[in-house]
Structure formats: C-alpha cells, structure tokens
Amino acid sequence: MGNTFIINGFGGERKLRGEVKITGAKNAALKAIAATVLFGDKVTLENIPEIDDVFRMFELLKGMGAEVEHRKAGSYSVVVPRNLATELPFEIAKRMRASIVFTGPILARFGEVSFPHPGGCLIGSRPVDLFMEGFEKMGAKVALKDNKYTVVAKNGLKGTEFFLKNQSVTVTETFMMAAVCAKGTTVIKNAAMEPEIVDLAQFLIKCGAKITGAGTPTITIKGGKLLVGKGHPYKTMPDRIDAGSFLILGALAAKELRITNCNPIHLEAVIESLRTAGVDVETKKTEIIVRAPATIKPIDIKTHEYPGFPTDLQAPMTVFLTQADGESKVFETIFEGRLNFTEALAAMGAQITMMDPHRVLVRGKSELRGRKLTSPDLRAGLAFVIAAIVAKGESVIHNVDTTIDRGYEDVDNRLRAIGVDIKRIDQSEF
Ligand code: EPZ
Fold first, then answer.
1. For a surface tag, which of 26, 174, 343, 352 has the fewest beta carbons within 10 Å of its beta carbon?
2. Test site for ligand 1: of 131, 270, 334, 341, most ligand atoms within 8 A of the Cβ
3. Residue 189 in contact with residue 162, Cβ under 8 Å?
4. Cα distances (angstroms) measured from residue 245 to each of 73, 239, 290, 314, 360
C-alpha cells in the first residue's frame, strides 16, 4: 500500500545539472498556521509548502471550527471563530508532533486546551515535560488521564520568566505564541535560536505583538491583546532543510546544480562542512551553486542547535560521508534514534560502525548498491533517496507518502527535472 519511489542510480557518476527551486519552510509554515489562533480577524498565509504536514495542521484547525480557504497553490486564509473548540482532534494530533504548537495559543486565548501525547517521526523519545512545566509556571493546571492532557487557566495565562532546560524549538515557539495573549511580560531564557523562530516572531510583530530578542537566547514578550491580520499577510521563509538536502545531493552527484529561492546564511554550518570536504560551493544572496568534487575528504560532523549543524540534515550528510576517502565521525547530539537508518545504508554497502546510539564511524569510499528500502522518517527517507541516486542499480523506497511527502513538496518531479531517474508508484492502485 502507499507510494513507492523507484530510482535508478548513477553508480557514483556526477550527472545532475540544472536548477531546483526551494519551497517555503515546513517548520516555519506549521507554526504560522498555529499562530492564526491568536488573530481576531482573517489571516492570509503565503508561500505555504503543499505537503502532508501542512494539510494535517489545516485539518486540525478546521476540525476545531476554523474556516480555512485554499485560495491557490501555496496561499491560504484562515478565520478562527470566537468559539473555537479547545480539544485538538485526537487522531490527527496524536500522529503529528508539530500539533503541540497549537496548545500555547489555544490555552492563552481560550483558557483551556486538551490534546493527546503527540507522536511523529521515529527519531527518539519526544518528551513534553517542558511544555507542561511552562504552562504551570504561567498559572495553568495540567492533568493527564488516559493519554489525554487537559490544561486549564480559567483566568488566562500570566507572564513569567522561565529557563528552558533544553533549547527546544517547538517549546520556544509555543511559549512565544502563548505569551502574546498572556497578561504581562514573559521572558524565555535559553530559547532556541532557529531561523524559523525569527520568522514566526517577525510575523507576530508585524501583526501587533511586542516581542524582542527572537534569534538570541533570551526572548521577551509583552502580552495582552489579539493580533490583526488585515494588511499583514505572512510569507513563509525558504526551507533551509529542503535547500540543504539538494545541496548535499549536488555535492555528491552534480556537474552543476543551482539551488534558487533559498537563504545561504541559514546553511553556513553545512556549507562550511562541505567546503572542508572539498566541495565547490558558491553562494549568492538567494542562491547556492554546487559542483561535486572528484574526491571527497573525510570530515567529522556534530549536530547542534542553530547555528550549528542541523540534526535534520545529519542523515543526508552521513550518506555523503560514505563517499569520502577515509574515516569520518558523525555525532548526533539531539535525538538518540536518528542514526538507526544507517543499518540500511550498511546493507547498501556502506561501512558504518555504530559506536553508541549517538555516534557512528563511517569508512569510505564505499560503492553503494541499489536496494529495497523502507523509510523510517522524512529526513532519513530523503537520505535514502540521495543514497539511491548515488548507488549502482535500482532502489525501491517504500512508505514515501507517510514519510518523505510529509516534508518535501513534489520532490520526485523536482529531482526528475535535474536529471534523476525516479518513478513514483501508487501501490493502492494495484
Ligand atoms: C523541531 O522539533 C523540529 N520540528 C524538528 O524537525 C527538528 O529536528 C528539531 O526541532 C531540532 O531542530 C518542528 O519544528 C515541527 P526540540 P522539536 O524540542 O521542537 C528535548 C523534521 O524532520 N525536549 O527542539 O520537537 C528533545 O527531546 C523535524 O522536520 C525535552 O526534553 O525538537 C530534544 O532532545 C523532526 N522536553 C531537544 O529538546 C520537551 O518538552 C530538542 O528538541 C521538549 C523537547
């Protein structure tokens, strides 16, 4: 069942060429959709990627009673009614981690919210303790019964000061949004600094929020009123992970690949690593041009919160390192399940030794061979696509619609346009 990709690999040749246009950022768009709960009027959202996670976020909103209009590709408008339901539709929310960002705005505006423990990608344990601790600090009462959290703040949330034990992206965003509708001032210390947080803050500020410090470890929010959508459309920033994935693919297999509509500044850690490995990367204001080198030097990678090397690009980078001449180390510091996909890479011929759940040793250069693969999550799924393009022979990647399609818009057509031999098969048709 589901969709499958069939890819005929290049067997290590550098054949890709042309231009690939980067879409709006998934992890920014999802938060902007949640932010619509903070508005008293209609909000317009532009450059929204047409991907499954986005569709599910809109389904959640609609399920609670919001009006969502899909105006044209990438363009939506949302009206949240005064009587929005405060329970997230369970079946969707429990399958999608990002649904948790709705909790902050709903609780702050409507005084209560209930939701299931959110699921999502199989990349390691995904606790919610920081959310609960934060809600309690803002004056709410939290209860958990039969896998359902109910959080109540009858008289609204009140501003507070808190220090995040982990620099969490969605926790930072959830509390930044909650604080917009809370009474008084909220200070988030040890906040995450990802560009998607800055993108969200800029949108909220444009619509009337008082936020300073987004993009630094201390964010201050003065709360108290609903935001105004009229005259302030949101335009999603370019997806740095989409861009980074094509950049790494280009570093392995391109004669010359132009990655357009992106922001190279968001990818400095990746570009620096690739250059150290000997890759020719040229950057312009909104464009990256990459050419694969004849030989790749081994390098060590350590994932880190922004501006460090993004965990969401660790899997494609690990594939890249299988083609380096020598030994590289990959240290995944954020999620302990995110190296499990390397087992499948080893089955393709890569020499990879797992040191512990957070560290692998990659010995190259290995000739990869096409295989049948099942994608465990969207980023590892895309890494399998890259491995399949580099490999010799045919690879079959199952589960595409429940993993890769969640986060990459129209990826097969964009790959085909730059020279990849890729077919999508909808197995539900058989
Ligand atoms: C966001 O996840 C992204 N998701 C992830 O992208 C990304 O991998 C991750 O940030 C790191 O950059 C969205 O933006 C929707 P975290 P998030 O909370 O916010 C710990 C993708 O493929 N933590 O920043 O869920 C946690 O266990 C996805 O697009 C707690 O301890 O990640 C981790 O070790 C997958 N308690 C650390 O914080 C909590 O309550 C950072 O994770 C919450 C998190």
1. 343
2. 334
3. yes
4. 23, 10, 12, 10, 20
Q: Are the C-beta atoms of residues 6 and 405 closer than 8 Å to each other?
A: no
Between CA 125 and CA 363, with CA 387 as vertex, the angle to 5 degrees is 80
* Residues in the chain where the model's pLDDT stays below 50: none
Give the Cα separation of 348 and 371 in Å (integer): 6
Amino acid in the structure at residue 41: D
Query: Could you tell me the domains of the chain?
Result: 3-23+238-429 (3.65.10.10), 26-235 (3.65.10.10)
Q: Which helix (H) or strand (E) holds 281?
A: strand 280-283
The pLDDT, as a whole number, for residue 400 is 94
Residue 366 is given by DSSP the state -
Question: What's the predicted TM-score (pTM) here?
Answer: 0.96
Residue 368: its pLDDT value, please? 98
Most informative mutation of 115, 126, 331 for ligand 1 (most atoms within 8 A of CB): 126
Give the DSSP letter of residue 267.
Answer: G
pLDDT, tens only, 47-56: 999 999 999 9
Q: Give ligand 1 pocket residues (Cβ under 6 A).
A: 26-27, 30, 97-98, 121, 126-131, 166, 168-171, 192, 311-312, 334, 378-379, 407
Closest residue to atom 6 of ligand 1, CA basis: 312
Considering Cα of 405, then 409, then 413, then 415, what sign does the dihedral take? negative
Name the residue type at position 47: N
Give the count of beta carbons closer than 10 Å to the beta carbon of residue 386: 25
Q: What are the tens digits of pLDDT across the range 134-154?
A: 999 999 999 999 889 999 999
> What tokens were used for 416?
């085909």
**Which residue's CA is the closest to the ligand 1 atom numbered 5?**
312
Cis omega before residue 357 (within 30°)? no
Q: Which of 263, 273, 292, 266 is CA-nearest to residue 331?
A: 273
Is 181 a catalytic site residue? no
